[in-house]
Amino acid sequence: MLKKIMEIKMDKTKTKNKKRKTMTLSYEAKLDSKKRVTLRNAIIKNFRVIEYDNGEIILKPQILIDLEDITEVNLKRIETAVHNMKKGIVSEPIDLKNFNFEDE
Q1: Distance linking the first and last C-alpha atoms of the chain
Q2: How wide is the angle at C-alpha 38 spanned by C-alphas 32 and 43, nearest 5°?
C-alpha cells in the first residue's frame, strides 16, 4: 500500500527580502477509503494542490473572496480585460526574470 507523508509549512517570515518558511507541524497521514487526507489544526480552508509524479504533494494556502467584495469599477475592468484577451488585444509579455519567485 502506497503511503504519502505530508508536511505542513506555514508561518512565512521575510528575511533579507526572501521568504523563510518555518515548519510548525509534521506528521504522517494516510488516505481514507475515499482518497481524502485529514489536516490537523488547519487554519486555512482552501488550498492549491500540486502533485508531482514522485508522489510528493504540496498544499499552498489560498484566500478566496466573495464577488460582492469586488467593486463595480474593478469588476468592469476585469470583464473588459477578459474580453480583450479573448479578442487577442493584449500587451507585450512582461519580463519577470528579475522577480524572486518560490518554486511551485
Answers
A1: 28
A2: 165
Per-residue cell: 71: 467593486
What mean pLDDT, rounded, does the chain reach? 78
Angle, alpha carbons 91-101-45 (nearest 5°): 100
Q: What is the pLDDT of residues 41-72, one digit of tens each?
A: 888 888 999 999 998 989 888 888 777 788 88
Dig out the grid coordinates for 20 from the structure: 523563510
Tell me the C-alpha distance between 70 and 57, whole Å: 32
Comparing CA positions, the residue from 41, 48, 57 lying closest to residue 2 is 57
Which residue ranges make up each domain of the chain? 5-62
Lookup: cell for 48: 492549491
- The cell numbers describing 81, all together, are 480585460
Asked if residues 89 and 38 have their Cβ atoms less than 8 Å apart, the reply is no
